[in-house]
Amino acid sequence: MIATEKTMEEGGAAVTSGGGWDVGRVREDFPVLGQTVNGKPLVYLDNAASAQVPRIVIERGAKYLREEHSNIHRGVHYLSQRATSAFEGAREKVRRFINAREARECIFVRGVTEGVNLVMHGYGRKFVREGDEIVVSEMEHHSNLVPWQMLCEEKGARLRVIPMNDAGELILDEFDALLNERTRLVCVGHVSNSLGTINPVKEIAARAHKVGVPVLVDGAQGAPHLKVDVQDLDCDFYAISGHKMFAPTGSGVLYGKAEWLEKMNPFLGGGSMIRTVTFERSTYAAIPDKFEAGTPAIASAIGLGAAIDYLNSIDREAAHAHEHELLRYATEKLSSIEGVRLIGTAREKASVLGFVIEGIHPHDIGTILDHEGVAIRAGHHCAQPVMQHFNVPATARASFAFYNTKAEVDTLAEAVAKVIEVLG
Amino acid sequence: MSSLLELYNEQIREHEKKPRNFGKLATANRSAEGHNTTCGDHFFVYLNVEDGVIKEISFEGEGCAIAKASASMMTRSVKGKSRDDVEVLFNEFHRMVLGELDPEVNPHHLGHLTVFSGVRKFPVRVKCASLSWHTMHAALKGEETVTTENLGPDITQAAGD
Question: Which positions in chain A have a beta carbon within 8 angstroms of at least one beta carbon in chain B?
Fold first, then answer.
């Protein structure tokens, strides 16, 4: 806790003023936001792809590189101990952030993709056999879909898909029908990166557990927008990507219940993950080391800890309320423009707004918006089955963070109108 | 706005809305598929090649305005041309969108294709303008699939995804 308070002093993290959300103050914490693009102020609405980094995270990473860098765990010298202490300190911050029982249940990985692949290799290759079934949802990001296809192909197992309706909501009755004695794992995203849908993962976990099936949650879009409590959700695995929650790339965490992690096979082999090695055989270290072969991204992991400090220093409820208001306002603004169709209209949504314009390809939308300084994403968002469901080749996607403003939503809407003017 | 209007000029918008030689080609004796997966551009190019000359050509598929207009105008430019002439056009078009050939300064055979010179100011769109050309080129060489995902003047600076 002392560390958190100290960081707040050093970084001058934003606080709310007078009960509202002081977005101007918050923006000062993010140096990148102050620049111009094509002569216009940058309007960064690509947060679902990667969020920007506050000053205290940048400074914490720099401090590590300037004063504390060494390899962790194995060194007896001063710097190695400092680096180890900062790295393990970050693990404890993650534990508290997601309310895991124990820090050893939090494995540092590069991001959600690596976390899911860890479970595919460690759990899937050990426990899934021919004829078994893995359940995913129709709106999964490729990172929580392709590894399971690879496993099914290798094992002769079958991939089952929870369908969604045209608003982009999972049809839970169909989910119940997919669960049976051959189901080995349910893999579902907390928040859809392409549609914004918030999935009822606690309910999904409860239904899966009734028939003894563990659940993996892709939390890439969940952790930045929602309060995550892995014990309350009662999921068996929860994966997060640091760079989606204001930390550097290369930082991420796979949470797993200790009883699963202990039963699973290791993932990567190498240094740090072993107990004893001879040419006849090796025995493996206890968790989390068993899953952390090689030198990890130490600076990035410490940066993730600092990003969590930052998130703890702001009023997260007010931040979420602000994001929700931006989503509501942007939804209203864009749907009032003739020719714009929103993709993803679930009742429960995080601040992700997918849209298409009749007769105009999203890539052209992206170029014209960029010309106006507005950064959005155009493409299939690594969710090609979602595009197939809505029968579009791609969508444009604006995604908001708590540092975005209503004025930026106005700029977005004006730029979209310009797209129609130029290409309509 | 000026570079935008240069990119999305009248002729490009017209070809995007009414693409020429669009659809399958019944007499095709060669074809290839081109796709840029990150943006969702996906085209097929069909050729009827006889005695080293492109007698007939068509394309179909989906893509952005730049990719579609480029495909449409490419089909008109190469139709009736010999392999060698197509090769010259392929190289010149490529160099123009990469900013290596300035049609106002350097000699060329591009004709109407110079409307794509505005692409040079949008490095991430080079792959869009080039896709159909590479697909046609692959079909001519007897290859089946192609991507221009990594094309650009300096991919280390221009990479968008």
Answer: 360-364, 367-368, 371, 378-380, 387, 393-394, 422-423
Are B13 and B69 a contacting pair, CB within 8 Å? yes
Alpha carbon A16 to chain centroid, angstroms: 25
- The alpha carbon of residue A138 and the mean position of all alpha carbons in its chain are separated, in whole angstroms, by 18
Provide, as residue numbers in chain B, all residues whose Cβ is less than 8 Å from the Cβ of A423. 8, 13, 65
Q: How far apart are CA A318 and CA A265, in angstroms?
A: 42
Query: With an 8 Å Cβ cutoff, is B155 touching chain A?
Result: no
- In chain B, the DSSP E strands lie at 30-36, 41-50, 53-62, 145-146
Closest approach of A377 to chain B, Cα-based (Å): 9
Question: In chain A, what residues touch B39 (CB-CB under 8 Å)?
Answer: 362-363, 378-379, 394
**Residues A364, B122: C-beta atoms closer than 8 Å:** no
> Of B36, B39, B161, which to mutate for an interface test with A (greatest number of A Cβ within 10 Å)?
B39
Contact B128 A378 (CB under 8 A): no
Which residues of A are identified as catalytic? 382
Dihedral of CA atoms B93, B98, B100, B101 in degrees, nearest 10, equals: 30
Cα separations (Å) of A369 from A37, A48, A328, A362, B118?
Answer: 11, 17, 20, 10, 17
One-letter amino acid identity for A124? G
Q: How far apart are the first and last CA of chain A?
A: 56
* pTM for the structure as a whole: 0.91
Does the structure show a pLDDT above 70 at A14? Answer: no
Q: Which residue has the tokens 């914004």?
A: A196
CA distance A240 to chain B (A): 20
Whether A423 and B65 lie within 8 Å, measured CB to CB? yes
Q: Strand, helix or coil at B114?
A: helix
A240-250 tens-digit pLDDT? 999 999 999 99
Give B13's contacts in chain A (Cβ within 8 Å).
423
Q: A361 CB contacts (<8 Å, ≥6 apart)?
A: A393, A394, B40, B62, B63, B64, B65, B67, B68
DSSP A143: G
d(CA A297, CA B76): 53
The pLDDT tens digits for A325-347 are 999 999 999 999 999 999 999 99
Which segments of B34-154 does DSSP mark as H helices, in order?
A: 65-78, 83-97, 126-141
- The answer to whether B156 and B49 have CB atoms below 8 angstroms apart is no
Q: For the segment A248-263, what is each residue's pLDDT rounded down to a tens digit? A: 999 999 999 999 999 9
Structure tokens at A47: 């947060």
| Alpha-carbon gap: B39 to the closest alpha carbon of chain A (Å) | 4
| pLDDT block averages, 10 residues each, chain B of length 161 | 86 95 95 86 94 96 94 97 97 96 95 95 92 96 80 49 36
